[in-house]
Structures are given as structure tokens and as C-alpha cells.
Design brief:
Layout: E1 13-14, E2 21-22, H1 41-58, H2 61-82, H3 86-109
Antiparallel strand pairs: 1-2
């Protein structure tokens, strides 16, 4: 592929916003992603900022911790079930459901 603006130059990537192929000279500097210089840099910057914020909100440490515990509890339940301790497994499953429900509620609050 060649640069959208320079038909003689090879492109090094394509703009995240409009998808045009760009050479080094046409890529806006100082951004995490590739963007057309003087054309799409603002859009791409906004997009990156939005994505970063969304990721931070969605995967806050509380939720990640709770999800990890939930998965661990579910695993333990299966383990105890296999050890023929269904009573304890049921107890763990109930705890898992409560934790899972909390995580679910947290997600929906956003
Ligand atoms: Zn662009
Ligand atoms: Zn170019």
C-alpha cells in the first residue's frame, strides 16, 4: 500500500479514524494510535481518551477482584462436589451467586 497523500511513498499504517493509508510524514505525532496529520488527529485523540476511560471504569480493581473471587469460588465448589462434600459445595455456590450478583449490579450501575 502507498500513502494516501504521497503515491510514491509506502504507507506504514492506516488512520484509526478514516482508514486512509499513511506514510511517516503524514502521521500525526504524539498520539497512541495512527491518525492523519491535521485531519483526524483530534478525532483519534478523543477516541483514544474515551476508550481508556471506558476501560478504566469497566475494569476497576473492585470488579476485577470480585470477578476473580467469583471464578475461584465456582472452581472450589466443583472441587468439593467432586470430593463428595456437596453440602459445603452448595454453601460455596450460594456465596458465588451472591458475589456474582454484586458484580452484576455494579456493572449495571454505570
Ligand atoms: Zn484519517
Ligand atoms: Zn504521506
Amino acid at each position: 500500500m502507498t500513502c494516501f497523500n504521497h503515491s510514491k511513498k509506502d504507507s506504514v499504517g492506516s488512520c484509526k479514524s478514516c482508514g486512509r493509508a499513511l506514510c511517516h510524514a503524514c502521521i500525526a505525532p504524539g498520539l497512541d494510535s495512527i491518525a492523519c496529520k491535521n485531519r483526524c488527529e483530534n478525532q483519534v485523540q478523543a477516541l483514544d481518551g474515551f476508550l481508556n476511560k471506558a476501560v478504566m471504569n469497566k475494569y476497576s480493581t473492585t470488579v476485577v477482584g470480585q470477578a476473580a473471587v467469583t471464578v475461584m469460588m465456582a472452581g472450589l465448589s466443583v472441587l468439593f462436589w467432586n470430593l463428595e462434600l456437596p453440602g459445603f459445595a452448595v454453601f460455596l455456590l450460594v456465596l458465588t451467586v451472591i458475589l456474582g450478583f454484586n458484580t452484576y449490579r455494579y456493572y449495571n450501575k454505570k
